[in-house]
Amino acid sequence: MLGSLRGTRLAAALVSALLLFTTACGSGDDSEAAAENKEPANSAFPVSIPHKYGSTSIKAEPKRIVTVGLTDQDAVLALGKVPVGTTEWLGGYKGAIGPWAADKLGSEKAPTVLTDTGTGPQTEKIAALKPDLILAVYGGLTKEQYETLSKFAPVVAQPKAYNDFGVPWQEQTEIIGKALGQESEAKELVEGVQADFKKAAEDNPDFAGKSAVMATPYEGMFVFGSQDPRSRLLTDLGFKLPTDLDKVIGDEFGANISKERTDLLDTDAIVWIVSDVAKDEAKLNKDALYADLNVAKQDREVFVKEASDYGNSVSFVSVLSLPYMLERLVPQLAAAVDGDTATKVEQPAS
User: Fold this and answer.
1) 3-class DSSP state for residue 304?
2) Any bridge partners for residue 13, and if so which?
3) How far apart are CA 330 and CA 237, in angstroms?
4) Could you give the angle at which helices 321-336 and 229-236 cross, rounded to 10 degrees?
5) What is the pLDDT of residues 34-53, one digit of tens each?
6) CA distance 87 to 96
7) Residue 333: CB atoms within 10 Å
């Protein structure tokens, strides 16, 4: 009987040990599974981003992003995030997201659209969105506006190196990529679009060294300077800008020119951003000084309808709008500089 009792106790001990071992193994597996399922911390943070008013530290990956910069939403969308708030500029698009970027929204809720009527960002509405990052890279925040917005979340203002609204799309994309912890992904996006420009230039060798300028008949003749993203579209394709352009423009992104400087428009190609193609073309050519320029007499003009998707993409100049824009602008420029005055510069089909 004693042997039987010892055998029973031994069996019980073995079962107990087995249960403890199994439990321990199970706990380990659960912990490992939990660790695997837990979203890993983004090792890119914290990051510090310099700008016009100092530098901003972002401690963790942002989840609720508000874009005050007028085109900043495209870089955010291209990097796989949807802002909770955007700022209206062109087109009246849902969520302030153009057709070139709409597929990036997917099934996500469209951002709340904010407006800036010239008095600055809508501070209270921005605060109500509870942002953890405010982007104002393609923007013109004053120091006071920057300090006010900084009370609610880290703010990345416009870079110091450029005029307000003058940051190149490449740097805009990379700055936003760094702010989102996706610096390498942003560089890849930039390289992809730069490859599109390179191919367009290679396919159109006539662009190289030709002069060109961007303008609009706003309160006379308004010409965009070298620091405006629209002008950079031309130089990125191989064109050169008029020699005295920045001397006349000053440190602004653009300015109205006097009648005495109409010569700035006499380039190998001129891109006019207009409200009505037929009416504005006729009106411009009624101006004796302009009509006497070779660019007008030889029909080397490219007209872009301002309030169209195409026109909006020309002004937007973002990592997502540029491929859409190139498909339409490049054929027009090619027709303008082909050396044959009989070639008509056609409007894009869409």
Assistant:
1) strand
2) none
3) 9
4) 60
5) 444 445 566 889 999 999 99
6) 7
7) 26
Average pLDDT on 168-196 reads 98
Distance CA 155, CA 145 (A): 10
Strand extents, DSSP E, 109-218? 112-114, 133-135, 155-156, 212-216
Q: What is the Cα–Cα distance from 237 to 337, expressed in whole angstroms? A: 13
Tell me how far CA of residue 70 lies from CA of 95, 165, 302, 310, in angstroms. Answer: 12, 9, 25, 17
Beta carbons of 35 and 155 less than 8 angstroms apart:
no
Place of tokens 């104002």: 136
Pair of tokens at residue 89? 């500029």
pLDDT digits (tens, 9 = 90+) for 307-318: 999 999 999 999
Question: Is the torsion defined by CA of 324, 328, 331, 333 positive or negative?
Answer: negative
Angle at 139 between CA 149 and CA 46, to 5 degrees: 55
- State residue 139's pLDDT score: 95
Positive or negative, the CA dihedral 16, 18, 22, 27 is: positive
C-beta atoms surrounding 33 within 10 Å? 10
The angle subtended at Cα 337 by Cα 332 and Cα 343, nearest 5°, is: 70
DSSP string, 38-67: SPPP-TT-SEEEEETTEEEEE-S--SSEEE
- Both tokens of 129, joined, read 């969105």
